[in-house]
Write a structure and sequence with these properties.
It is a single chain. The chain is about 90% helix and about 0% strand. By secondary structure, the chain is mainly α. Helix 3 packs antiparallel against helix 4. The radius of gyration is 20 Å and the shape is elongated. One of its GO terms (biological process) is lipid A biosynthetic process. This is Lipid-A-disaccharide synthase N-terminal domain-containing protein.
Length: about 110
């Protein structure tokens, strides 16, 4: 019985990760890797500062990974994945806008002083 279960799992894994592998699957893995890097960047920045920090690179990786994952989700025709990634991209771009706006105000106030 256990042999049949392990065989079935092995066959499923082979189908999912080997047989259907194509450029879209590769894109999905690249996108997921970029998306995951945002957590790594945030973790390292927070460890260095000894407090919770969200650096601009977090949002850069969020946009890159999220955009590629959205493309992948559209290709896969997955409505849940499409809605989730599209909504996330709005938030990521909004945060980048806040960062850029704050930098602009800082530059302007520094030039006035």
């Amino acid at each position: 019985m256990a042999g049949n279960l392990f065989g079935a799992i092995a066959n499923w894994l082979h189908h999912v990760f080997v047989e259907q592998f194509d450029v879209w699957i590769l894109l999905g893995f690249v996108a997921q890797a970029l998306f995951t890097m945002r957590f790594v960047v945030q973790w390292i920045a927070s460890e260095r500062a000894k407090k919770s920090v969200v650096p601009a690179a977090f949002w850069t990786f969020s946009i890159l990974g999220g955009a590629l994952l959205l493309i992948y989700a559209i290709y896969r025709k997955d409505p849940v994945f499409i809605a989730g990634q599209a909504a996330g991209l709005f938030i990521y771009f909004r945060n980048v806008w806040f960062i850029l706006h704050e930098r602009k105000l800082t530059r302007e106030s520094g030039a006035v002083s």
